[in-house]
């Protein structure tokens, strides 16, 4: 309804507000962000990751950060990813990594951002680990897809990206990327976008989400279906069973701290499940987007504060 929509829009505006971020981050994870963020340090995150692996849940780890405004900041984030990759490798974890293009400086210096991402993907390849480039808001869609394509043409194929079902363009992108055999994560989409480019209604987003899933499962190119929507997960399992699609061709992905029981249940039933595990100091925008997805989370956090 209108109230929820306004509340959501306000939260998404707050997610992009630097002053609010600086104020919130002073409180560490005490604001309740600890439900969604695995820790402030790499070693805390690695411990959580091992715990998930014990439950047969794989991980994609995200060193939080986005929208950097200085090149030194981007270099520091790139270095943090090298340490993350080494940490995963040294402990033999079943994990890959996710990163954000604006964290590597895409909005600042696209060529330098590309170089950072290429270094990370190359280092991941040395450890046989996979990198997913998260999809941010629409000003970065084309550039993000171009980065992934360029890496593939350079022979670095251990990298994929994300398509958002709320964007009207996503079916076209999906067809092309599937032909190019790029591994994809499909999501509904977490940012505020104009109705001219994004479906405003849940019903339409869910419909395109299913079309994207169907196209990918039919193609056989590995696909992550990243959602907590039990109806879409059930629909996917039924579709795959009906079409005889191998479980090794897809996996479900969910966020750390969300629908944990469902994650464990699917893993026990033998489905591939991967948990997105974010950690680090820059947790504020990530946390506020999680609140916007489910306004009831705000009350949950206020109650437990
Ligand atoms: P919804 O219809 O929003 O929710 C379905 C049900 O799930 C809700 O009724 C509720 O019970 C539960 N739920 C959903 N969200 C929450 C929450 N925050 N807290 C508690 N319960 C919740 N978006 C991008 O734009 N780019 C990305 O790169 C990206 N990567 C992602 C990676 C993973 C692994 C996941 C799971 C999501 C990612 N997203 C990304 C976010 C995604 O776009 C959605 O905003 C988010 O997943 C919520 O939508 P949903 O599919 O769960 O469905």
CATH topology: TIM Barrel
| Amino-to-carboxy terminus distance | 27 Å
> Helices and strands: which structural class?
alpha/beta
Number of domains: 1
What small-molecule ligands were found? flavin-adenine dinucleotide
Spatial strand sequence of the major β-sheet: 1-2-3-4-5-6-7-8
Average per-residue pLDDT, rounded, comes to 93
- β-strand amount: 5-15%
What is the string of helix and strand elements?
HHHEHEHEHEHEHEHEHEHH
**Total beta strands:** 8
What fraction, in percent, of the residue positions are helical? 40-55%
Q: What is the subunit organization of this protein?
A: single chain
CATH hierarchy, class: Alpha Beta
Estimated radius of gyration = 18 Å
Task: Report on this structure.
The protein has 305 residues and is α/β, with parallel strands linked by helices. The protein has a single domain (37-282), classed as TIM Barrel. It contains 12 helices and 8 strands. It has helices spanning 2-15, 18-25, 42-54, 71-91, 110-126, 141-153, 170-179, 202-219, 230-243, 260-268, 284-293, 296-304, and strands at 58-63, 95-99, 131-133, 159-164, 184-187, 223-226, 250-255, 273-279. The chain has an 8-stranded parallel beta barrel, surrounded by 7 helices. Helix 8 (202-219) runs parallel beside helix 9 (230-243). It is globular and about 50 Å long. It holds the Pfam family Pro_dh.
